[in-house]
Amino acid sequence: MRLAARGHLCPVCIRPAPAGTCDEHGTWKPHQLLTTADRRRCGRRRWQPFQPAAQACPRCLGEVAESRTGFTCVDHGHDQDPHGPYRVDELLAPTAQRVSAAARLRLTRRRQVRRREPISVSLHLPDPARSARVVISASIVAGTLAFLVR
Ligand SMILES: [Zn+2]
Ligand SMILES: [Zn+2]
């Protein structure tokens, strides 16, 4: 018997779920949990923009196809450590997929920071010069209003 890697991460928030239980997202079946390899794979995919499907593979948010044994992940259903087969209620619904995609995006960004790729981070920091301009123009408007009222 082949020994598959054991998943240990909640498929929604990608945080460790001891004994399959995430404090926030409940209890998962062992085959729904992400493995370390699944988490690593998150970084190779773009999570934005994210368009949820009607239902998705909990481990990679990929497309699933119905087979005789249940729903199998299209991309990773036949890997060494296959995703699925899942029962229909083990797939992620669109709301959970959105939360999960956001968590995967954060994870990917954090990893980019660690790899010292500061470009993606600096884009999201507020531009101090611009904020200062906004404050100045706001005070000009306020001043003008005060003048008009007088
Ligand atoms: Zn969770
Ligand atoms: Zn999958």
What characteristics describe this protein?
single chain, binds zinc ion, two-stranded antiparallel ribbon, mainly alpha, 4 helices, 150 residues, elongated
- Strand fraction equals 5-15%
Helix content percent band = 25-40%
End-to-end Cα distance: 86 Å
Q: Helical element count?
A: 4
Oligomer type = single chain
What small-molecule ligands were found?
Answer: zinc ion
Category by helix and strand content: mainly alpha
What's the pLDDT, averaged over the residues?
87
Shape: elongated
- Give the strand line-up of the largest sheet: 1-2
Provide the gyration radius in Å: 22 Å
Give the low-confidence spans: none
Question: For the report, how would you describe the main beta sheet?
Answer: 2 strands, antiparallel
Q: Which series of helices and strands comes N to C?
A: EEHEEHHH
* Total E-strand runs: 4
Note down, in words, how this protein is organized:
The protein is 36% helix and 8% strand. It contains four helices and four strands; from the N terminus they run ββαββααα. The strands form two sheets. The protein has a two-stranded antiparallel ribbon with strand order 1-2. A two-stranded antiparallel sheet has the order 3-4. It is elongated, with a radius of gyration of 22 Å. The relative contact order is 0.13. The model has no long low-confidence stretch (mean pLDDT 87). Bound molecules: zinc ion (ZN) (2 copies). One zinc ion binds next to loops.
